[in-house]
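Pipeline run #58 for the internal structure catalog. This entry was flagged by the ingest filter as a single-chain record with no existing model, so it goes straight to prediction. Upstream metadata was stripped on purpose; only the residue string is passed forward. Reviewer on rotation: M.T. Logging verbosity set to normal.
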Amino acid sequence: MTCLRFSGFGLRCLIVCLALVPTMLAQDAPVSDRTQFGTDITVGPSEKVGDVTCFGCSVRVRGHVASDVTVLFGTVTIADQGEVAGDVTDFGRGVRLDKSVKVGGDVTVFGGPVRRDPEASVGGDVTTFNGIIWLFVVFGLPLVIVAGIVALIVWIVRRATRPRVPITA
């Protein structure tokens, strides 16, 4: 019969590993992210999610978002003691922070207002670029520049591949 023998160092390592097992088992399951195109997202009061990303729709947070909320052409509403651990970013329509909500990071809005209750807590900066001109600067100007580059490339290629016609007099 074989008996396991541990040296002092090996016994200490075994004890530490066994002590960590309940800690590792007790950790929460990883939270899932939510991404939608055209369908609103609602985080309920008892829910906990990771990142929330919405294109062409709105987000309403009443529970806990463990990371960031990003919305393109929609609104963000954080209500009923909702929490966002990271940043809130909205391109297009605005953000509303109701009473007793918490945002751990920054709140940034391009092209819309920030409606914030005095009791809402924001851990970072609140920045708003109100007005439609900011949407053009953020989305339109880069699109115009890329379109100009593509037009220049097409013009160069067409000019290089055009057959040469000799001039006869």
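catalog note: The first helix runs from residue 8 to 26.
catalog note: Residues 16-21 have pLDDT under 50 and may be disordered.
status: ready for reviewer M.T.
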